[in-house]
């Protein structure tokens, strides 16, 4: 059973222990919080407690539920808290728990007092001897204002109203998660760009000037996996026996033609599926149009999907910094279609109808 | 013909009960008060309004709020208020 109370009179500890004791329990654990008689050299005369009572009881009940969820063995739980004026050295809070074994009882009480100090809306004011001002205390564990869960700092990218914004940029509403994702994609893209530049730089910096540009790729030692072993009776200490480049710019020319391979593999399957093809085609075509891509209908469907995917990845990782992508793309096409939302007055309409009537009597 | 756009809902104002405890109660010199606010508002904006209205600026950075007896854990959250809702201004706790 849960015993929860906010009380105005002294807490009877013996009574509390009796409440939670049970024949089936080998352990009862009790915590008694008492008021101290001094704070920073000032003598405490008394303490005044106040609570947001309904909510405090609710939160205390929640603590009980949490305790039972964590230690299902618990038999009885008691949380009593004093309100009003409490003279020094009296119990202000009593927490007790009983369980078949001591571990659950002891841990539950510790957890409960920590939770109570952080979440139950009760406040304590210390009243001191002499001329010292009374003071509202603050638990270090107390729940504090949290504001920073929204990780995106909107203030760092203020919108410059004066600038003419490209028509291709639209304002979107997105939650933090989406924004974070977009920023991460942008980082990734940037990283990839920098990486590819680095590879090229590395290649060039290793080139001596007398090697002509045709052999450049072959002699580059970027991304090399080599096995080195000493030869018998060799004048040299070390000799390269084998070098394998599994990836890297030197291997570009050896890569299989993925596009070609794909077309070859899927050609037969696509042609047999002619009934569904027109529907697929029209849907894919509308997606392509929407994304500003052009393709021939007879082009391999896998390639077209791949292009769409690439486009999505590009757009996802694109920020205003990448405006040049828009400029070279064909996204400007639908310009003509945009309607002007001109409103006509009744008079204008009448004039228009009149004119039309005249034109075709 | 006249078209009325039903979607552009203007923010509706609601009357809520604001409760003050401990130091907040002393600074605001009241235990509860009726306060008119928009029905949808970010918790931090609501807290700012209350802080200004009730003279709590000295402790504003330590305050949290509880809406209908539940803590609003994150002040960036939007809260949706109805007439008669209870909003408690909660300074740092010191129970135990």
Compressed to H and E, one letter per element, the order of chain A equals EHEEEHEEEHEEHHEEHHHHH
Remind me, CATH topology of the domain at 2-136 in chain A?
Answer: Aldehyde Oxidoreductase, domain 3
Provide the helix percentage of chain B: 10-25%
Number of H- or I-type helical stretches of chain A: 10
Beta-strand level of the residues of chain B, as a percent range? 25-35%
At the fold tier of CATH, the topology name of chain B is Ubiquitin-like (UB roll)
Quaternary structure state of the chains depicted = heterodimer
Whole-number tally of structural domains of chain B: 1
Low-confidence parts of chain B, pLDDT < 50 over ≥5 residues? Answer: 1-8
CATH superfamily of the domain at 2-136 in chain A: Molybdopterin biosynthesis MoaE subunit
By CATH reckoning, the class of chain B would read Alpha Beta
Binding site for substrate (chain A): 101-102, 117, 124-126
Subunit structure (chain A): Heterotetramer; composed of 2 small (Mocs2A) and 2 large (Mocs2B) subunits.
InterPro entries (chain A): MoaE_sf, MOCS2B_euk, Mopterin_biosynth_MoaE
Catalytic activity (chain A): 2 [molybdopterin-synthase sulfur-carrier protein]-C-terminal-Gly-aminoethanethioate + cyclic pyranopterin phosphate + H2O = molybdopterin + 2 [molybdopterin-synthase sulfur-carrier protein]-C-terminal Gly-Gly + 2 H(+)
